[in-house]
Amino acid sequence: MKAVVYEGPYEVTVKDVEDPTIQDPTDVIVRITTTAICGSDLHMYEGRTAAEPGITFGHENMGIVEEVGPGVATVKKGDRVVLPFNVACGFCKNCRAGKSAFCLTVNPPGAGGAYGYVGMGPYSGGQAEYLRVPFADYNCVPLPEGMEHESDFALLADIFPTGYHGVELSGMRPGDTVAVYGAGPVGQMAAYSALLRGASRVFVVDHIGHRLDIAKDIGAEPINFDDGDPAEQITDALGGEGTDRGVDAVGYQATAKGGEEQPAIVLNQLVDTVRHTGGIGVIGLYLPSDPGAPNEHAAKGELLYRIGRFFEKGQTMGTGQADAKRYAHQLRDMITEGRATPSFVVSQNLPLSQAPDAYDRFDKREKGYSKVLLHPGM
Ligand code: NAD
Ligand code: ZN
């Protein structure tokens, strides 16, 4: 089959690789109809992780079930399914608690599994014609037949539930004010989720104008950090008060005004942005180690976080990979019923063969490249 293969920093190619096969009775093989490129793929693409050349990326996948293992009970050949990015068993202690991103079975001692992601188990990615899905009864989320809402449903594999999770981690309640740092696809989904959940005001911070425009279009208030301290801009807009909630959808690759990489800047600005006793959700990625970091502490994953100020303000913080499966069924039903249309963030629908060019442009955050969907059958 054709697959996107990582060749080394800043280089992917599309070439023939072996078809996946059923390895365990609980596996299915899915023919991919839509797979997305994620900001999380770029950490590997840029060579900032231990990802080895030869692997196939792709943790945001949907398609049609092609082959079913003898131990699968509920999924049938021909079913249309979306695959939340956490590969998980469904029966370990963490999965039972809804923490499918920390499955103890697929990747002990709990780092969680994912398709096509370094350090997250042996599972190949779905930027390919076919994908093996383990523990299929748990990992396949069934979708209505046909092709309707294809781009909306594709976002259930990661960024829609991940954005929703960021807001959930912050403890958001209806009527709250929310600040989202990062207007990438994940930040857009966090802002959209806050609005869906009844936020009174949502601020979105970035410095890429065309990304801030998308946030404005959905009803959020854009804040450009090149115009001055974003925490000050937001608290000024609120008459001196902080927001009730804040979400970090940037992660360790945050830059300061001027473009210098400053990994902890968003975490510290959130402490200033959010009011006393408010809540913060961190979904932007922080690596346990980062060889490309700007200093030796950051390279070991140690960041200068103003814990004293955080403590003084009595804030709370939730972190981690998102338990995408936990929200996927409800968010699917909201899409089906026309109450959510997350595909406003999708900028391109391309054949798989155009992946190398799409990676390059998305990595450069080129105008018009907010979220790329790839279609192996196109
Ligand atoms: P992206 O790189 O496209 O978006 C990040 C945005 O942050 C960019 O628009 C950038 O301009 C902006 N930014 C940089 N510095 C900033 C600052 N100081 N203040 C405000 N904005 C700033 O990536 P994405 O696809 O939107 O993903 C965002 C993060 O979420 C990545 O770290 C990704 O790995 C992570 N992620 C986490 C999960 C999870 O399960 N927790 C899932 C998916 C993605
Ligand atoms: Zn992703």
UniProtKB/TrEMBL annotation:
Gene Ontology MF annotations: formaldehyde dehydrogenase (NAD+) activity
Domain Alcohol dehydrogenase-like N-terminal: 25-145
PROSITE patterns: ADH_ZINC
Keyword set, alphabetical order: Metal-binding, NAD, Oxidoreductase, Zinc
UniProt key word Metal-binding: yes
Family annotation (Gene3D superfamilies): Medium-chain alcohol dehydrogenases, catalytic domain (3.90.180.10), NAD(P)-binding Rossmann-like Domain (3.40.50.720)
Superkingdom of the source species: Bacteria
Residues of the Alcohol dehydrogenase-like C-terminal domain: 185-256
Family recorded in the similarity comment: Belongs to the zinc-containing alcohol dehydrogenase family.
Name of this chain's protein: Glutathione-independent formaldehyde dehydrogenase
